[in-house]
Amino acid sequence: MAAYEPVIGLECHVQLQTRSKAFSAANASFGGSPNDYTDPYTLALPGTLPVLNTRAVEFAIRMALATGSTLRKTSRFARKHYFYPDLPKGYQISQYDEPLAEHGEVSFFSGGSLRKVRLIRIHMEEDAGKSMHVAGAHGPVSLVDLNRAGVPLIEVVSAPDLRSAEEAAEYLKALRQLVRYLGICDGNMEEGSLRCDANVSVRPVGATTLGTRTELKNINSFRNVQRAIEYEIERQIDLVERGGQVVQETRLWDADRGSSHAMRSKEEAHDYRYFPEPDLPPLALDAAWIERVHGELPELPLARRARFMEKLGLTEYDAALLTAEKDVADYYEAVVAAGADAKRAANWVGSELLRELNRDGRTLSACPIAPAALAELTRLVDQGTISGKIAKDVFGKMWATGQGAQAIVEAEGLVQVTDEAAIEAVVRKVVEANPQQVEKYRKGNEKLLGFFVGQVMRETAGKASPELVNQLLRRILSPKEGSS
Ligand code: ADP
Ligand code: MG
């Protein structure tokens, strides 16, 4: 069998989290009862006119700048015609031959190396409503909910640079991370705030021209991006191997079945009857505005990751983990700024804190432990006031009660015992109480040291300094000490 190379390009729709819609003042929130968030413009009542949402443009500019795209000084809106019940105007306002931005790129790490995927364009448009097909009293009925109609979107179109289903999923993750960092979209794929269509073709390895592509619609999770593309790659290879030809078509992914089926032959641009939107003037961007938006961009994920490694000495793994979400990175940096050792803070935030947040399904905005409080806890360990093990218990109590570390340690008498004589007395008591284990240990079963440590810790309610306990046990259990 000949070897084939998959070629993939993604078209991603990013819902911009503005308060109002792209061209009218109707509420742009997700949810609500059907048709709550409409107004005369959304309903396409005669005589209504679009008014462009400045915030939506600003969000689109953020994305264009963050991806190094070239912003068009003057872009233009265009009508793209469809005939669907969920599109009351009969057309979608989009951008066509003069999009907002072009030639950017999205970068991400894949298997340890940096991948750059080129962007063909980023353009602005509005979302459609939703049709729902349900059972009615007299048979099936179709209902329409226009809450989503007119919500601002940007469409981010990648070049056909991706070479595997896995890489496509990684690209999508990077895109999601970026829009969340930029605060322009919540990236919630289940609610449809981030959606993607995948264009897939295959070609013999070494070929320089592209094969015929199909477009997969309706992909609403990372897992499904990967599954849908994998399925399509296999389907196309199989087809070509059997002497068939891929036809350019739109296919619908069915996540429940794990397969896709042809939906329609691919429409051509002329099918949409594009023409410049007569009700909106060309969008001219003010240079000073772009400058301001540029100045307000946050540090982007890859730059932050690199800084965490170079300036804070974190491993690649920790740096990636702690920069995956902007709020986690902000929290982590606040812990370090409050005086915690960078590496130690990374451990606490990366393991304990994220675990608790996940378990309780909370975001950092509802975190009961303030960064300064976590820094205080790490200092208590560094100073030897409490052991690492006790610190985990204290952390649990801080999480449950919101109290400070110092307060909990004092109230519960958890200060570490570092008085050697006191610990030695306990060690001797434990050794005397377990003559059989002592004999085995002295005959070479060194694993029993853990047993003794455990006994001493139990006797001291976990407060003995683990270092001292280990030292003393080794000395007292050594055959030399035994024979003296
Ligand atoms: P359209 O607007 O008709 O969907 P575009 O030229 O804008 O077409 O391309 C849409 C997407 O398809 C882009 O993401 C692009 O990278 C991808 N694409 C184009 N040709 C191919 C191909 N032969 N194989 C895979 N992806 C492709
Ligand atoms: Mg397309």
Name a few traits of the molecule.
single chain; 484 residues; alpha+beta; ten-stranded mixed β-sheet; three-stranded antiparallel β-sheet; binds magnesium ion
Describe the structure.
- The protein is of the alpha+beta class and 484 residues long.
- It has 16 helices and 17 strands.
- Strands 1, 2, 6, 7, 8, 11, 12, 13, 14 and 15 form a 10-stranded mixed beta sheet that branches.
- A hairpin with a 2-residue loop joins strand 7 and strand 8 (113-126).
- Helix 7 crosses helix 9 and helix 12 crosses helix 15.
- The longest helix is centred in the middle third of the chain and has 20 residues, at 222-241.
- The structure holds adenosine-5'-diphosphate (ADP) and magnesium ion (MG).
- Magnesium ion (MG) binds at residues 11, 215.
Principal-axes shape call: elongated
Specify Rg, calculated over alpha carbons. Answer: 30 Å
Oligomer: single chain
The amount of helix comes to 25-40%
The small molecules bound here are: adenosine-5'-diphosphate, magnesium ion
Number of strands: 17
The major beta sheet can be summarized as: 10 strands, mixed
Question: Layout of SSEs?
Answer:
Blueprint: E1 4-15, H1 54-66, E2 70-71, E3 74-75, E4 77-81, E5 91-95, E6 101-102, E7 105-110, E8 113-126, E9 130-136, E10 139-145, E11 152-158, H2 165-181, E12 194-204, E13 214-219, H3 222-241, E14 249-254, E15 259-265, E16 275-276, E17 283-284, H4 287-295, H5 301-310, H6 316-323, H7 326-337, H8 342-360, H9 371-382, H10 388-401, H11 405-411, H12 420-433, H13 435-442, H14 448-459, H15 466-477, H16 479-483
Parallel strand pairs: 13-14
Antiparallel strand pairs: 1-11, 1-12, 2-6, 3-17, 4-5, 4-16, 6-8, 7-8, 8-11, 9-10, 12-13, 14-15
Helix pairs in contact: 2-3, 5-6, 6-8, 7-8, 7-9, 9-10, 12-14, 12-15, 14-15
Bound molecules: adenosine-5'-diphosphate (ADP) and magnesium ion.
